[in-house]
Design a protein that fits this description.
alpha+beta; three-stranded antiparallel beta sheet; single chain; three-stranded mixed beta sheet; 6 strands
């Protein structure tokens, strides 16, 4: 379950931010999670609850914004939506796709007090 390692890294980011700009607690953490990034949002929520215990983020709300997958098809030249990385182009059924969006995992907002 690599979501545990991802949340450990997230807690490191929060600690780094706290050293730069001291705060007493985290109220909300917002993450953008791409549909093609192989991250399970439910597992990420669980991992966050484990890693946030006894930290400034213990009572924080984790808000996950799911970013849909999209790609540019080299066969037909269309930008198409993808639900999974291995999907074929819905226009031409081709597999020569260049992912444009949906692989991200970004900390987009950190609300602190």
């Amino acid at each position: 379950m690599h979501e545990m390692a991802l949340c450990q890294g997230l807690m490191t980011l929060i600690d780094d931010q706290r050293r730069r700009d001291p705060f007493t607690a985290v109220r909300r953490v917002q993450l953008a999670v791409g549909a093609l990034g192989h991250v399970d949002p439910r597992a990420l929520e669980f991992a966050f609850s484990v890693h946030a215990r006894d930290t400034v983020a213990e009572d924080a709300t984790l808000e996950i914004i799911e970013v849909p997958g999209s790609a540019w098809c080299m066969n037909c030249g269309e930008r198409v939506q993808l639900a999974a990385r291995a999907d074929a182009c819905p226009q031409c059924e081709g597999h020569q796709l260049i992912v444009q969006q949906g692989e991200e995992l970004k900390l987009t907002e950190l609300e602190v007090i």
